[in-house]
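Submission sheet (multi-component)
Chains listed below:
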Amino acid sequence: MKALVYHGPNQKAWETVPDPVIQEPTDVIVRIDSTTICGTDLHILKGDVPAVKPGTILGHEAVGTITELGSAVTTLAVGDRVLVSCISACGRCSYCREAHYGQCTGGGGWIFGHLIDGLQAELARVPFAETSVYKIPAEPTDEQVLFLADILPTAYEVGVLNGKVEPGDTIAVVGAGPIGLATIMTARLRSPAKIIAIDLADARLARALDFGADVVINNGSEDAIARVMELTGGRGVDTAIEAVGVPETFELCTELIRPGGRVANVGVHGCSVTLHLEKLWIRNVLITTGLVDAFTTPRLLQLIESGKLDATPFATHRFPLEDTLEAYDVFADAATSHALKVVLSGLPVEPLPPIVATSAAAGS
Ligand SMILES: NC(=O)c1ccc[n+]([C@@H]2O[C@H](COP(=O)([O-])OP(=O)(O)OC[C@H]3O[C@@H](n4cnc5c(N)ncnc54)[C@H](O)[C@@H]3O)[C@@H](O)[C@H]2O)c1
Ligand SMILES: [Zn+2]
Ligand SMILES: [Zn+2]
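Outcome: structure written.
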């Protein structure tokens, strides 16, 4: 089969590799029908995730069809269409028993395209299949459910739920990339009164408005703290969600919240961040961090099925699977391509209409 193989920092190839085989009785083999690229894949390619060994197939998000079953698999069948999530669950360890699948100590957690071969391939071996994949009903398309594999549960669990967003809250989302936009989309499920999106890129802020932000602030050209205080009567927001992963934005979040407010950090940080406890101790703040557990995936799937959640606007570009290298270039050059998520399809591809760059509405 063909797959996207990581060969060490800044080296990748779309090449022929052996077909995956069942290794454990709990495995299945899945034909990849749709997959996508994550910002984390770009981090891996820069060499930021040394746990990924050269020779590993990348990718941790897919929709596919089961082609082969391990001998212990009884609740899935060949031909089932399934969502393969970024998080696998052994189903037996103490973390899995508490639905903290991201922390699985039984061989699950984030393994695809990290500790084992991933999903940017024609076929993939999926361990712990019965407790890790989600059967997809006939109705939704691949593209309607694909983003349940990572960005939607990440944003909802690590951003919105950790940040305890309640009806009527005013929240700030710092960073309007795919994760920030997914945070805006899923925060609306909890009826905040106002969503303020903050980013340096006007094009991203324009998308934030499309995804449901009420107000946008370009913190490159405006004083974001002053604007937020003005918008909240001097109080600060109830929850600030960090969706970038750099020290400035974490510190900004701690300055945007009201006393008793919450900072939910979603961004992956590569260097030390200063925690200003000398200012924060008196303000009763809650700070949370997290890796996604994907425990909300079934609920989010129900919302998609019932038409209450539409993630298809994330799909800005489509490519056939064999053009994965080109898709990486487009995804990595988001400033020019305006890509949010690129869909790689093992099935025939229908082109998407070109993206019309909307003018930024910073400050509206
Ligand atoms: N915790 C988890 O489980 C988890 C899972 C997936 C991704 N992540 C992390 O979430 C973060 C966001 O992911 P993404 O794919 O949306 O990333 P992205 O790079 O596509 O988007 C980041 C956005 O932040 C903006 N930005 C950069 N610097 C800024 C600054 N100083 N102030 C304001 N905005 C700024 C950029 O313009 C961009 O729009 C990353 O750190 C990613 O690694 C975490
Ligand atoms: Zn990811
Ligand atoms: Zn486990």
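Remark: The pocket of zinc ion (ligand 2) is lined by residues 38, 40, 60, 86, 150 (CB under 6 Å).
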